[in-house]
Write a structure and sequence with these properties.
Layout (H helix, E strand, L loop, with lengths): L1 H4 L22 E5 L7 E2 L5 E2 H12 L2 E5 L5 H6 L17 E5 L9 H9 L2 E5 L8 E4 L16 E3 L4 E3 L6 E3 L12 E4 L3 H10 L4 E4 L6 H10 L3 E5 L14 E4 L13 H13 L10 E6 L5 H7 L3 H15 L6 E9 L2 H17 L4 E12 L2 E10 L2 H16 L8 E6 L3
Parallel strand pairs: 1-4, 5-15, 6-13, 6-14, 12-13, 14-15
Antiparallel strand pairs: 2-3, 7-11, 8-9, 9-10, 16-18, 16-19, 17-18
Helix pairs in contact: 7-8, 10-11
């Protein structure tokens, strides 16, 4: 940041923290792929780089330019839009076919396997790393869970370990059940590691890109140099790559994000499918996209396969307005954590009581228990408010009042405005 601070640099490029660069006389702030949730910093201090960029542009009299092929509903409603009617290379968006996976047990549909075998280069998106989602015992039903978090351990076959993707706990792959001694240990589901193995068994050159790959840049360079092959990965493969010789895109388990209890589930599913579709057919040979799903009629998947961002966003905004979700309300999430659940619930209940007693301008939802994370039991409540500033002030006052009480001494409090 030294050249920027000393006025030696005219342009600063970087991740979300670059929005704080000490540039003088800022005239333009560009937020690329503004839909990406990673612009929200979930640690301390919590901030949304998009809101910081908007505030900084307003203060400096600068132009704020937010770019995305799949804009957030909040941005779509709030910002003036400039539409690019065609790709830079002049190619039309690739045709997208939905493959109904109901009744199919394999990770890949036979039509998908045939398409991968004939395509020169392909990108396959499966937003789940590892080999299998979880292990259990066929004899007694015991499942291997993280000792620190209320989540199943994921099998990583290459390293012969089970891992928690929340706290990082690892343990060796079991040879028998620790509860009943049975050797009938079953593996369920498939991740990028298993998909890579299965496609390699078919004789296809494979390249993997996920958080377990030590040299992601090397994997991308190898895929670019290869005459043919398949790039397999999590959402990392859907972000901004430009390979003109990729003629096939595949989304595996496209409806996985729809199963999360999150009002943004449809938005994220649409963005993931649409962004992957944008990686295929960028050269003269054109391309196509296959979307494997158990929910072929889901609005987000239908809209993404039709390249209909406007239609999806119009429907999503109508739904959110009816249910009073952002951008038609502000959400504030409170999380109380402790070594045991009763103190966490007691603190969350005290927060809810304080907010209701002092007339917070909005609805107080909860408290409710959250799954245990990193050996801490958790409880949460949500405030859904029409007016942002009064609600934020009320949230701060409630935490100040409750956290200082002696009975909540062992409880940690966190407040997240506009949780992602």
């Amino acid at each position: 940041m030294a050249p920027a601070a000393h006025g030696e640099a005219r342009v600063c490029v970087g991740p979300r923290s670059a929005v704080f660069a000490p540039l003088a006389d800022v005239g333009l702030i560009v937020v690329d792929e503004e839909h990406d949730p990673s612009y929200k910093h979930e640690g301390d201090p919590r901030y949304d780089a998009r809101r910081v960029a908007a505030k900084r542009a307003l203060d400096a009299g600068a132009l704020l330019l937010c770019g995305s092929a799949t804009p957030r509903p909040e941005s779509y409603r709030a910002l003036r839009r400039l539409r690019l009617s065609r790709r830079v290379d002049g190619q039309h968006p690739p045709p997208v076919r939905t493959i109904d996976m109901r009744g199919t047990d394999a990770a890949l549909h036979p039509d998908t396997v045939d398409a991968l075998a004939t395509a020169r280069k392909s990108i396959v998106l499966l937003n789940r790393r590892g080999w299998s989602n979880f292990l259990d015992c066929r004899s007694c039903g015991h499942a291997w869970m993280c000792p620190n978090c209320d989540v199943a351990l994921v099998l990583h076959r290459a390293g012969a370990y089970l891992a928690c993707h929340h706290c990082g706990h690892r343990e060796r792959v079991p040879q028998h059940c620790t509860e009943c001694g049975s050797v009938s240990v079953a593996r369920h589901g498939a991740g990028t590691e298993r998909l890579e193995h299965d496609l390699a068994q078919l004789g296809l050159p494979t390249f993997r890109l996920d958080a377990d790959v030590r040299d992601p840049g090397g994997a991308l360079r190898a895929f670019e140099r290869a005459e043919r092959g398949v790039l397999i990965g999590t959402q990392m493969v859907a972000k901004g790559h430009d390979f003109p010789d990729v003629t096939l895109g595949v989304v595996v388990d496209a409806d996985a994000t729809l199963r999360f209890p999150d009002f943004r589930a449809e938005e994220r599913t649409f963005a993931l499918v649409a962004q992957l579709a944008g990686r295929a057919g960028r050269g003269e040979a054109g391309g196509r996209v296959l979307v494997q799903t158990l929910a072929p009629d889901a609005p987000s998947i239908v809209a993404a396969t039709q390249h209909d961002a406007d239609g999806f966003l119009a429907g999503e905004l109508a739904r959110r307005e009816a249910l009073r979700y952002p951008p038609f309300a502000t959400l504030i999430k409170f999380v109380c954590s402790a070594e045991a659940l009763p103190p966490a619930m007691a603190a969350a209940t005290a927060l809810a009581d304080h907010l209701r007693a002092h007339g917070v301008p909005g609805d107080v939802l909860g408290p409710a228990p959250l799954f245990r994370l990193r050996e801490r039991e958790r409880a949460q409540l949500i405030v859904k408010a029409a007016e942002r500033r009064p609600a934020v002030r009320a949230a701060g006052a409630a935490v100040d009042a409750v956290a200082g009480a002696k009975e909540h001494k062992g409880v940690s409090f966190s407040v997240d405005v506009d949780p992602q």
